[in-house]
Amino acid sequence: MIGYNLSTKQTPQRRQVDKVMVAEALDISRETYLAILMDRACNGPVIVGSPQGGVDIEEVAEKTPELIFKEEIDIFEGIQDSQALRMADNLGFKGPLRQQAADQIKRLYELFLKVDATQVEVNPFGETPEGQVVCFDAKINFDDNAEFRQKEIFAMDDTSETDPIESEAAKYDLKYIGMEGNIACFVNGAGLAMATCDIIDLHGGKPANFLDLGGGVKESQVYQAFKLLTADPKV
């Protein structure tokens, strides 16, 4: 696989594979879905689970919303044993696996807090034929604002997987996201930047980027922002 181009839903631009992670091969007897994420509507973390795992959770929510279960977590009280056990029940874990699953859910919540995550998604969260509850595959998103206390985690960031312009912009504390158009956007304020992109699109144009200078911008940042925009061959 190394050295070949891989095209999936997560890699639409056919990126070359430079490294792989090798893990122990395990048989799965049953798959469920579990995620812990920040929910603004609830003003805190929420545990989301479904007994249908190993598939796209959005598809499950659309076709069988009754199979989506949620537990709102009080950020001050933390996850309660009753909540972890109730989620284990909703996911269909029986007998000794019920307590195993609840313990795993509580540990995942501890991880969520410890690493300043915005999302911990385990899919599948399942069981083996030998009767073990296992996080077979996981995805974690980290809060960029927590970089100052999660230096070891952010040091592992593989910049080869990031747009070079985005990586360069981050060095100067500029919020840049590359897009497919040819009209450069240079805006002070995230809301205004999004509105500018919308207006360009509304009138038939295509923005080449989202660029937010943010508050308290310095002259050096303005200079670097112009350099980044003019370096984009699409503009």
UniProtKB/TrEMBL annotation:
Coiled-coil segments on the chain, per record: none
GO biological processes: succinyl-CoA metabolic process; tricarboxylic acid cycle
Keywords: Ligase, Magnesium, Metal-binding, Nucleotide-binding
InterPro entries per the UniProt record, alphabetical: ATP-grasp_succ-CoA_synth-type, Succ-CoA_synthase_bsu_CS, SUCC_ACL_C, Succinyl-CoA_synth-like
Domain of life: Eukaryota
Residue span(s) of domain ATP-citrate synthase/succinyl-CoA ligase C-terminal: 187-235
GO molecular function annotation: metal ion binding; nucleotide binding; succinate-CoA ligase (GDP-forming) activity
Pfam families registered for this protein in UniProt: ATP-grasp_2, Ligase_CoA
Pathway: Carbohydrate metabolism; tricarboxylic acid cycle; succinate from succinyl-CoA (ligase route): step 1/1
GO CC, alphabetical: mitochondrion; succinate-CoA ligase complex
Cofactor needs: Mg(2+)
Every ATP-grasp fold succinyl-CoA synthetase-type domain range: 1-125
Name of this chain's protein: Mitochondrial succinate-CoA ligase GDP-forming beta subunit
Origin species: Engystomops pustulosus
Lineage: Eukaryota, Metazoa, Chordata, Craniata, Vertebrata
